[in-house]
Specification:
There is one protein chain. By secondary structure, the chain is of the alpha+beta class. The protein has 2 domains: 329 residues, no CATH class; 231 residues, no CATH class. It is 29% helix and 28% strand. The chain contains 13 helices and 27 strands. The longest helix is centred in the first third of the chain and has 43 residues.
């Protein structure tokens, strides 16, 4: 394989946003026309890295993304081919409505952690409220996300939609209406996320956990390796994400039910902000419980709080034990048993007719390959009390597959019960019969994407231009120009253009709202060209303050956005907004269309792809 073909095999991914930017304005006074509008988007992938636009079902469970040969063929309508794994996601189709997006200054609605990390709330953006004198008075968290229905970005009150979403406000909806509608959809979404992550834990670590039990109870082994303890630690981290999703779902249940009881809008907003904050321990949420909660809700919260702490302690203990640098270190069963039992308690799991903590269970391996987990046989089984009974398969050594079946007696499960109650109640303030509301103002947009690589790697933001594919002929549009911004104006000076460009943010979030990375330009890199003002786009070090303000503290040393596990779909949402904390009156032009230009994002995988070892045959053979 020649050098050019090796270069062509490099994995890279391009996401091109062409953004027309009109005037930005101060937060201090009401603007006449602060906006960024006219978005056109191309997204592409190549090599071992694949991409797909997500929808309502595949956002929750990306294993449902179509993978058949030809599913993403260019001869299909792009709105169809975008939904399957492939090389390009084309968002220029008017059906996505990106050309209707108008961005006005906003603040990311994030909750800052003690370490400066951020969790983006379901409302995504905080928007300015103004007094009768035109001055900024407060931040409103009532923004919602909506998909384009052909005429407008329409917010469906009965569900949360995914794919290409505008973020904005529907002026006709009360806070209670919005919160109840969001709660109805988000309880279901978080339930599905918890279930999918639980299955992923079994599929990824089930064989290793089962093998530890076999060696302990069948072979009477009391010596376990670093790999064994690492599997317990990593499975615990995955299950921690399950408990986080259940936690978020329960909080949404509290907010939704409170929206049906509290008539004072300001009182409700204050309560909802506290309950939704992950900085407020779930145990503290109990004091805000409304009267119409399902029976046993408090007990459910107490169980979750207890197991969250136990799981955190277990991960910390695993990390402490793994800190020993000796690669051949051995651990006794007593050192690893607490962490293992927290995940799967062998005494309450069965292989065929025998409990897993007996030697008889493993004597029939290859014959009775059904692992039945009782309701409280560790967190991996107890998740079924919240998400419903499930079955999942994993491969184990020479056995093709082991089936895991849970046996929870909670029917319906806890989160389904909460969903049913939410569907029956009405908002305390506002019309209960609204099915769909058009967004009246937009402040940002999201693109929900699935990524998959055929080897373990990191997803990177590529700043230096790099070819996505290589051909002998002329380069195509999506072959890669790196990540950059280019804007021009007939009324703003280059330094004004650069300052406005510096206020545009591109954030990357996982499906739990964790802010993975933030991209922006570095002001010192501005270059004035004949086409306008250019500046490369880099990942930035960021810090989210407790009040939600996003601080950019300098360029990040690396370009890593997210780790990509081997051949496993990863959900990442790209959010674009104009950061109002960095926009002033003096940066705006005197007409609505003060600046136009392009925002180009290119991604890459750091996987070291290797050429095939297949023998090369002569053409005459």
């Amino acid at each position: 394989m020649n050098k050019r073909k090796l270069i062509a095999a490099l994995v890279s991914l391009i996401l091109c946003f062409v953004v027309l930017v009109s005037s930005s304005y101060a937060w201090l006074m009401l603007s006449l026309a602060p906006e960024i509008t006219g978005v056109k988007t191309h997204i592409g992938a190549n090599g071992g890295l694949e991409i797909a636009l997500l929808g309502d079902e595949t956002y929750v469970d990306p294993t449902l993304i179509r993978t058949g040969v030809g599913d993403s063929a260019v001869v299909q309508d792009s709105t169809v081919s975008n939904l399957s794994w492939g090389n390009v996601v084309d968002l220029t189709d008017p059906a996505y409505g990106l050309d209707r997006i108008v961005l006005v200054p906003a603040r990311l609605n994030a909750l800052g952690g003690a370490d400066g990390s951020g969790v983006v709330r379901r409302n995504m953006l905080c928007v300015a409220q103004y007094g009768i004198d035109g001055r900024f008075t407060a931040l409103d968290t009532g923004a919602v996300s909506a998909v384009y229905d052909g005429n407008a970005f329409a917010y469906r009150v009965d569900r949360q939609s995914y794919g290409v979403r505008g973020i904005g406000t529907a002026g006709s909806m009360t806070a209670q209406q919005t919160a109840l509608a969001n709660a109805r959809s988000m309880v279901k979404t978080y339930r599905s996320t918890a279930l999918a992550n639980t299955k992923a834990a079994w599929e990824t670590y089930g064989a290793e956990l089962l093998d530890i039990c076999l060696r302990r109870y069948y072979l009477n082994n009391d010596s376990f390796t670093r790999a064994d303890l690492t599997a317990i630690r990593d499975a615990s981290v995955t299950m921690d994400s399950v408990l986080d999703a259940i936690d978020a779902s329960l909080r949404q249940g509290v907010v939704g039910l409170a929206a049906s009881e509290l008539e004072d809008e300001e009182e409700f907003r204050t309560m909802a902000a506290v309950v939704e904050s992950p900085l407020v321990p779930l145990s503290e949420v109990l004091k805000y419980l409304p009267d119409n909660l399902p029976e046993g809700f408090s007990k459910t919260i107490n169980w979750l709080v207890q197991n969250q702490q136990m799981l955190t302690d277990s991960v910390e203990e695993c990390n402490r034990l793994l800190s020993d640098p000796d690669p051949d270190i051995r651990y006794t069963y007593s050192q690893i048993s607490d962490g293992l039992d927290l995940l799967i308690n062998a005494h309450d799991c069965w292989l065929g007719d025998f409990r897993m903590d007996t030697s008889n269970a493993y004597g029939r391996m290859g014959q009775d390959n059904v692992l039945t987990a009782e309701a409280y046989a560790g967190i991996m089984a107890a998740a079924s009390n919240f998400c419903g009974n499930y079955n999942v398969f994993f491969a184990y050594k020479q056995i093709n597959s082991v089936e895991v079946v849970t046996s929870s007696t909670e029917s319906p499960d806890h989160l389904t019960t909460i969903s049913a109650v939410l569907d029956m109640v009405k908002p305390a303030l506002g019309d209960a019969n609204v099915d769909s509301v058009n967004l009246t103002d937009t402040y940002g947009y999201l693109v929900d994407l699935g990524f998959r690589c055929n080897t373990t790697s990191n997803l990177l933001l590529q700043t230096t231009p790099a070819l996505r594919v290589e051909e002998d002929g002329e380069l195509v549009q999506t072959q890669g120009g790196g990540s950059y911004m280019r804007f021009s104006s007939n009324q703003l000076a280059p330094n004004q253009i650069g300052t406005l460009m510096a206020a545009l943010r591109v954030g990357f979030m996982d499906n739990q709202g964790n802010l993975l990375a933030v991209a922006a330009i570095s002001p010192e890199d501005f270059v004035v060209t004949e086409e306008g003002v250019d500046a490369p786009l880099y990942l930035q070090e960021f810090y989210v303050l407790p009040d939600g303000r996003l601080l950019i503290t300098g360029r990040k040393d690396d370009a890593v956005i997210q780790a990509l596990p081997e051949d496993t779909a990863t959900v990442i949402s790209v959010i674009v907004w104009l950061d109002g904390d960095y926009v002033t009156n003096g940066q705006a032009g005197i007409t609505p269309q003060s600046m136009t230009g392009a925002l180009n994002l290119q991604f890459a995988s750091d996987a070291n792809l290797k050429p095939s070892d297949l023998p090369i045959q002569d053409s005459d053979d």
